[in-house]
Amino acid sequence: MEYGLKPLGREKFWFWVMLIPTLIGLTFGALGSILATLGLSLTNWDLLTPPTWAGLSNYFALFNNPAYLKALTNTFKFSAMYVPGVVIISLFVAVLMNRKIRGVSIFRTIYFLPAVTSAVATALVWNMIYGRDTGILNFILNLLGQPSICWLCTKNALMSVVVVNIWGAIGEGMIIFLAGLTAIPREYYEASTIDGAGVFDQFFSITLPLVTPSIFFQTLISTINAFQAYDYIYMMTRQGQGDSSVPVVVFSIYRNAWNFFRYGGASAQAIELAVLVILLMAFYFWLERRYVVYE
Amino acid sequence: MKKILFSLAMVAVLLLSACGGKTVGGNATSASPVQITYMEWGDPAELDVWKAIVSDFEAANPNIQVNVDVSDWDSYWTKLKTLLAANTPPDVFAMDAPLYLDYQSRGVLLNIQPYIDNNPGMLDGLFPNTLTAYQTPDGYFGLPRDFQTIVVFYNKDMFDTAGVPYPQSNWTYDDLRATAKALTKDTNGDGKIDQFGYVIDPWDFEPGMSEVIWANGGDLINADHTQTLIGEPNARTAFQFLHDMMFVDHSIPDPNTSSQYGGDLFLSGNAAMIAMGHWAVPSYSEAGFKWDVVEMPSGPAGQATSVNSAGFVVAKDSKNPDAAFAFIKFVLSTAGQTRLAEMGFACPVLESVAKSDAFLKQSTPIDHQIFIDSLAFAHMKPVFKGYDEWSSAIGDGLTPMWNGEAELNPTLDQIVAQADAVLATNK
């Protein structure tokens, strides 16, 4: 499959001229830091004295590091709830927003608002919602005669932050799915209506298969976001000295590097996280070949 | 008017120093001034005070210019480490005493002992127990700039309303517990406590935890920093005491409760007492209630508090170590310390200034003498390589217990093992 036009002659020159700034940024910024991280992960480095060779010891040490293993478990639990949550809910919202109803752009804007609002500010608002004695959520529960729940205590904190992260990601997911939905030809729906298909038949037999490319893309993006999630979690669950009641791997990487002078160990954690994401991506691409429908 | 007077004074100082220069023989007036950078963490408000200190300093040393760089606590350390790694460190930078050896042991600090030796008597007026933290077998690699003792701040209005007498200097932990209990209340009658008797920092030893341990005859860590002692019987009793205030009396809020009040319950008017250092005075001075301070109570092993200092150090790679040291020397002089004292964030390390009106009669009308008197029974906040990682292991370990999800004794057993493991890897 080939898309778009191929640059010809002089265009080729300008093609590269235009690309060079981005390429330089990618090479020295992204690729350079990835390689540097890889190199550092094989050393013991405290940033201030010259690094010493450590071989793979930083990687082996990860398996005996209870704080890291706890963080890794939290990251996986978080992703397992977050990714399906974002994909399903934003698809649902997109289907709702993909109709000609009065004021649909206002609704779309409302759903998109969290994506353009500072995570720090919204997390503060969520803290007010979740507050155990002073929160709005428990106030409503009490009105309904239910006992208060400590939403941000260790037991419930993971679930509570997943909810907020999903809430913050619906807007962007909705945009992706709206783009996918509008690309589905109307005729399919008209033809199926004539054949007597109901709304649910249409959704599962037409919409869902044809929107699989968007689902694939959104799952990919959400997984990457899930592994990098930090801001809401930090704002809502932080404890003393950079800890959290649900520390995820990003917490562990940051603290090991910047608080504990362990840049080698932190780099090993970052590389391991990247490898896990890459493995997941490989699995997704395998699924893509089997299930994703391209028109 | 103030500005004009200040400018006039500056002009006068410049003229005088110019004359001075001539008599010595016109030294270095033609050369362009030496530039040094001083970096520290702090409030934006502190920048103004430092600018005042710097202009005093520059007036006295016309061939040195100081650039002041103030960041918030978290950014400060990230920025500092990056600058050190890039070999472009600030010439002089602030140091939290517990973290001093993390830097000193890695060879990025200049040994300033030769400079001190060239200035005999310059350490004479400084409080000896603020100097201890910076002594190494090779001499001083830094000096204290100001210090903090922990005292109890109390909300007078809350005591008056409850008809409870103010705490006195000779009080005990039993008094503290009873007072805190009497001041813990549900003021709006919704069945939930919204006024707490006492607040401590549940993660950092300094404000509230280490004091009880010491007053009980316990300690945090052994002398050569190889063993964590918070699981020893006397320390355990201290933790049990705080635990009971939190979970039996409910007079200390647990972290889940305090997080609902934006962090500082004393400032928000939801707590009657808090263990705190002088750094809180400027922000508390804007609180809408009357308050004062009293010494930490005494326990079975007597009275105890924590002393910690902010110091300053010179980067080993500084291009102008002479100018850098001259700046340190100036900040430790009567003029520099007086300015710092007026700033109100900390206690001056120069004894004569700490006992002068500049410190004792600052704009916030509380008994500042208490902070100085507390030095008499103060223990030093531990200083050793790996402090941050060690205290984080303890802070993280305590979290489930303070959140009411784990029992005290198994928690302490587990923490001691983890903290000792950290000590072993930081040798």
Distance separating the two termini of chain B: 58 Å
What name does the CATH topology of the largest domain in chain B carry? D-Maltodextrin-Binding Protein, domain 2
The biggest sheet of chain B, with number of strands, parallel, antiparallel or mixed sense and barrel status, is:
7 strands, mixed
Helix content of chain A: over 70%
Provide the domain count of chain A: 1
Query: What name goes with the CATH superfamily of chain A?
Result: MetI-like
* Biggest interface, CB < 8 A: A-B, 28 and 33 residues
- The separation of the N and C termini of chain A measures 11 Å
What oligomeric arrangement do these chains adopt?
Answer: heterodimer
**Which architecture of chain A per CATH?**
Orthogonal Bundle
Please give the number of β-strands of chain B: 15
Q: Are there runs of chain A of 5+ residues with pLDDT below 50, and where?
A: none
Task: Based on the coordinates given, report the CATH architecture of the largest domain in chain B.
Answer: 3-Layer(aba) Sandwich
Strand content bin of chain B: 15-25%
Give the low-pLDDT segments of chain B.
Answer: 1-30
The H/E string of chain A reads HEEHHHHHHHHHHHH
